[in-house]
Automatic annotation (TrEMBL):
<keyword id="KW-0812">Transmembrane</keyword>
<feature type="transmembrane region" description="Helical">
    <location>
        <begin position="59"/>
        <end position="78"/>
    </location>
</feature>
<keyword id="KW-0472">Membrane</keyword>
<feature type="transmembrane region" description="Helical">
    <location>
        <begin position="28"/>
        <end position="47"/>
    </location>
</feature>
<protein>
    <recommendedName>
        <fullName>SRPBCC family protein</fullName>
    </recommendedName>
</protein>
<feature type="transmembrane region" description="Helical">
    <location>
        <begin position="84"/>
        <end position="104"/>
    </location>
</feature>
<keyword id="KW-1133">Transmembrane helix</keyword>
<dbReference type="InterPro" id="IPR023393">
    <property type="entry name" value="START-like_dom_sf"/>
</dbReference>
Amino acid sequence: MAIGIGLLYSLTARFVLGEEFINDSGLLTGSFLCITPVAIGAITAHYSPPTEGKWRRLVVAPFSAVMLFLFFALLFHLEGFICIVIIGPLYLLLACIGASFYAGLADPQEKKNDKTLVVTAFALLPFLAAPLENQLSNPDSFRRIENTVIINAPPAVVWQHIIRVAPIQAHDLGHSLIDDIGFPRPVEATLTHEGVGGVRHATFERGVEFIETVDDWQPLRRLSFSIVPNTATIPPTTFDEHVIVGGRFFDVLRGTYELQPAGPGRTRLVLHSEQRLSTHLNWYAGLWTGYVMSEIQGRILAVLQRRCEAAGATAAAVAARPHYSRFGFIAHN
């Protein structure tokens, strides 16, 4: 019964707090992401039989209620799989904390009515906090994610592989957790023309495309561009509304490749990007966006590293191969 009531409460909170008249930021709010799971934990602890041990009341019951809520949210398409993965750890942790809070406040009290007042306060808190939170605007947080790789190839080889990225196969990238949770894999990047003003079209799986306009072109040294998602090509089913790139909550603004000398025939390649987060929980959302962006960039750099080193090794072998001059003598480079 405790788990069932916790599930019913969580679904009610999902529908009520998701309404724009309650909070125009939808579900990316502290009232839904932080206070609601605390209330779920308190409710499951309250309705768990007193004869149950603390482990079952304070951990198993809230954990089970949250897992069922996440399952039903996914089953009935209330949330996308990406969002379920993102909010899951936070919900599980805070639900257990909420159960412990309730136990600390209510267990020492002997009167049943007092315990009812405590759990009622927990249950009402998200709905009271949401309208107040709605008065606060979403703060913008600008973040930079950087990845670096050392490539055993000269800058001239590396440069040719970054200005345009040839088609990437799934096996080139290898496996990653972000594939399992639904983020599209990078496919290729084309370039209309070299130099400032050139436009790169960076495509990902499932119709995702970004238009990248070059505004800093320093051959063999630096390539930088602004990024705008091509919303006309992105199907609405590719991303959940809360994680769509270019939406009101998240956007990728810029990307930059930097080539730095790292010794004879070696290049340090740096890829960094700038993102905007606009939620009431930028601290938590930033953990996930930082991980996802770093994983995407790191995988692209790994592909470029293998390609550049293979091309550099081939060029070196050709250069070292003896050949005949037109007079019949053997020459070496």
